Amino acid sequence: MPLLHAFDAYPAFFVTAVVVLSLAIGSFLNVVIHRLPKMLERQWRAELAEFEGREPAAAPRYNLVVPRSQCPACGHPIGALENIPLVSYLVLGGKCAACKARISPRYPLVEALTGALSGYIAWRFGFSWTTAAALVFAWAMIALAFIDLDTFYLGRAARQSLRRVHHAALRGDRRGSGLPCALGGVLGLQARDRP
Ligand SMILES: [Zn+2]
Question: How much distance in Å is there from the Cα of 126 to the middle of ligand 1?
């Protein structure tokens, strides 16, 4: 394929293509960061209702695609032209096109961060499978980091795993293994720092 040969032959062209694609990915990551925790919360509430034998509350469909993005202040649906990564934010001066409510600078920040990091990866590893794997990893990390910033879900999950390691280590100690216990003790202390 000529395009693949061009990616291989002209690294600058490849990096540019990756940056452009990644800006769009960054835009999608904003949706993931905003909606994934809400989707999880809905799922947990539904599971709790089922566990308690209650009928789960009826709610309109909500996933990464539905409903379409809208201004949180006035409900104005965000059209394709208002959704161009970085460009739309700059053109609109960081305000909703309809009600002029301020749009969080975090949206363009996530897009710029995704574009810059992806561009660096493409430049560093070139047109290769390493780049493909590193990009997917970087995108997932950006989403998880910002979700954790908002919700602390990640930190909570990490602390729960640490507690499990700690308990496993304590069980190990009863059978006479000192090192896992010491390790678990350290991890456990850290886990207890933030209840
Ligand atoms: Zn608005």
Answer: 41
